[in-house]
Amino acid sequence: MTDLMTGDSIRIAMWSGPRNISTAMMRSFENRADTMVVDEPFYAAFLKESGLDHPGRDLILKEQPISWQAVVDDLLAPLPTGKRIFYQKHMCHHMLPSFGLDWTDGFRNAFLVRDPRHILASYVKSRPDVTLEDLGVERQLDMFRMIADREGKAPPVIDTAEVQAAPKETLTRLCAALDIPFDAAMLSWPKGSRDSDGVWAPWWYAGVEQSTGFAPPNDAARTAEFNSLDDDLKRIADAAMPIYEEISRYRV
């Protein structure tokens, strides 16, 4: 698939799990003058197909397409005048086995990972009932391997902690791996909500709405929060850790 039928447009699919600075990354790219973004476009299709009850479910189902094929059509549509890059924030666990993935061929796919202990410490604050599947790490590994096999090389990987600790350096490496120029505008953004934010923002985005850039990591606090979790949650982290470690070996 060449140029995705839209001239020289570039479409970036960033594959992540929840509670992983994925929205801050979306803010970072949206602050580029040449870029438009979309926030978790498969969420409603995922909820409709899975039947799961997430915060804001009815509103999400009303606001987004519930057909994954309709979502793909939107992701392949021509970009507005003045925009050359389409940054797409995706959750790996939204990509159910029944959803096609051929459309990712020709995209510049990348992966955002985070220590699963820190993901869980954050996740349970908004949704106490959590499973390994909710973290999306198994699906993330499946997709990472699929794309690596198809492209003959590992796609770019970035780690939340490294973005937070050294945003300019890490984003510069990411942009190089995606073959786009780094833009210093990616390092800061205005505080507040965005029209591009998903309708689920009231349940999940309180922190990022107060942000103006990438905050330094506070791993000690997250580790302390994780240590206070029950044994069932710690077993989920134990199961997720080898997957995280496997993908993170390919960090840019």
From TrEMBL:
The keyword Amino-acid biosynthesis applies. SUPFAM superfamilies: P-loop containing nucleoside triphosphate hydrolases. Keywords: Amino-acid biosynthesis, Branched-chain amino acid biosynthesis. Pfam families: Sulfotransfer_5 (PF19798). One of its GO terms (biological process) is branched-chain amino acid biosynthetic process. InterPro entries: Class-IV_PLP-Dep_Aminotrnsfr, P-loop_NTPase. Belongs to the class-IV pyridoxal-phosphate-dependent aminotransferase family. This is Sulfotransferase family protein. It comes from Kordiimonas lacus.
